[in-house]
Amino acid sequence: MARHTPTYTPIRNYSIAFLLSLSIFYTDISFQTFAPLRGIVNASTLYVQFISRSFVENISFTFASFKQNKYLLKENKELRDQILQIGTKDFIEKKDIEEKIQIIGLRDTLSDTFKSNGINIFKIASIDLTNYFCCSSHKVFLHNPNKINVEPNFSVFAGTSFVGQTKRTYMNFIEVILLSDREHVLPIKSDFFYCDARGKGKPMLISCKLNYQNDDFENRIGDNVFTSGLGGIFLKDVKIGFISKIIPITSNEIEVVITLKANPLEENFYGIINKDMNEI
Amino acid sequence: MKFKNHLIVLSTIIFGFLLDNYLNQFTIKFFLELNFGFLIFSYWVFAIPEKIQSLAAMLYGLAVDLFFSNAIGFNMLFFVATSYIIHLYVFRFRIFSYFQLSVFFSGSSTFYIACKYLLLSPNNYSYLVLILSFVVNAILWVGVYLMMRAFRRRIF
User: Fold this and answer.
1) Which residues of A touch B80 (CB under 8 A)?
2) What residues of B are in contact with residue A200 (Cβ under 8 Å)?
3) Which of A50, A63, A256, B80 could be cross-linked to A17 through a Cys-Cys bond (beta carbons 3.0 to 4.6 Å apart)?
4) How would residue A280 be classed by pLDDT, with cut points 50, 70 and 90?
5) Coil, helix or strand for A60?
């Protein structure tokens, strides 16, 4: 009697599939070979979401119209139209004013900070919340309906501080890599140290390793941290956060954890400086 | 298997990953990562092994990678490997109890989560996430199994 049940599992096919998958995975994590493909898929998904949302709204509006009693429709059509118009207008105006105030506020902050008016404001299209809360990859897509030419590696501002830099553009969307992304490196400075802070892969946290003793950082928690401008992407002396934790690694090495000032989840609008204005 | 049926299987897997994507942003705060997508894929291989083999597993993985992953190849790799292991022991699994099946499939799903964190997000690796996810995914497996079985019997 056979001890094993007979199964047909061709090892050769599985080995080929396994090796192929492995090589694709390796090339992608090492060299980002398929990053453009992923970006295009992401942008297309966002497009489909936008289109389907407006399609569903139209359909539901049509169905709602059919459901109305004909008599009521006839009698109240004008009145309801007027009320709807006024309500919609009111809502849009209110929303418009709120958005305008936000945009003006952001533009003013950017103008004050960079002493320049060549700033483009973009509305957020999507943020990958699952990855933002759990994993290393922290990215935001911005809506760019006017297809403004935005180059990669331009600093992105939101609220009152930097939040990241542009990575690529796909169709009408701009991919922004946030400061807390594990791949992002930001040159920073404090009163007494300079370092290249890497994203921690956790919301609003970056960190850098320094050759200091833990005692040197006593009472330093809460100190402000600024951009040093050494990377050539971010302007210097912009406050980006504060020291929130000191973790000793060895007797002569510590990790300084910095909590960022700008929270991408609370921002609707993001500012990017024009290409011409960015050139010195 | 017909192309239409492959599309049905793939849509259920994608639905699982969509569910994960939506729920995990809330559950991860409690050190819990749900893995419906992987469990649904495992169910399909377990239920119709003769129809889902290496190529299908690889293509499903590719589709999931394109829509949900940060690196193409990760799900391909795991789908192919899981599919191979399930194929090897598929008839033995048939005589397993629900509990044994839960432990196996939840274990595979926890291994998947552990590798995902180790390879793609090492800073966020946490044993607490793995332990909690193992327990919760083991419970979820029974629900996924029963629901997917009912769905399969109605569709195929």
Assistant:
1) 14, 17-18, 21
2) 123
3) B80
4) very low
5) helix
Q: How far apart are CA B11 and CA B7, in angstroms?
A: 6
pLDDT surpasses 90 at B104: yes
Distance of alpha carbon A84 from alpha carbon A232, whole angstroms: 52
Domain containing residue B62: 3-155
> What span, in angstroms and rounded, lies between the C-alpha atoms of A247 and A214?
8
Question: CA–CA separation, A191 vs A223, rounded Å?
Answer: 8
Q: Identify whether the C-beta of residue A186 lies closer than 8 Å to the C-beta of residue A240.
A: yes
What angle, 0 to 180 degrees and rounded to 10, lies between the N-to-C axes of helices B36-47 and B54-68? 170
Are B64 and B42 in contact, with CB atoms under 8 Å apart? no
- Given an 8 Å threshold on Cβ–Cβ distance, is A137 in contact with B120? yes
Q: With CA atoms as reference, report the closest residue to A43 among B63, B73, B67, B20.
A: B67
CA separation, residue B5 to residues A13, B38, B90, B108 (Å): 22, 18, 21, 25
Q: Choose the weakest-confidence range: A37-46, A92-101, B81-90.
A: A92-101
What DSSP assignment string belongs to B25-63?
A: HHHGGGT----HHHHHHHHHHHH-TTTS-HHHHHHHHHH
| Alpha-carbon distance B86 to nearest alpha carbon in chain A (angstroms) | 10
Cα A140 → chain centroid: 2
Look up residue A163 and give its two tokens. 């939040």
Contacts of A28 in chain B (CB under 8 A): 71-73
Region of B101 please: left (phi>0), alpha (psi -120 to 50) or beta: alpha
Q: Cβ distance A124 to A50 under 8 Å? A: no
Q: Which letter, b or e, does each residue of A22-39 get, where b requires 16 or more Cβ atoms within 10 Å of its Cβ? A: eebbeebbeeeebbeebb
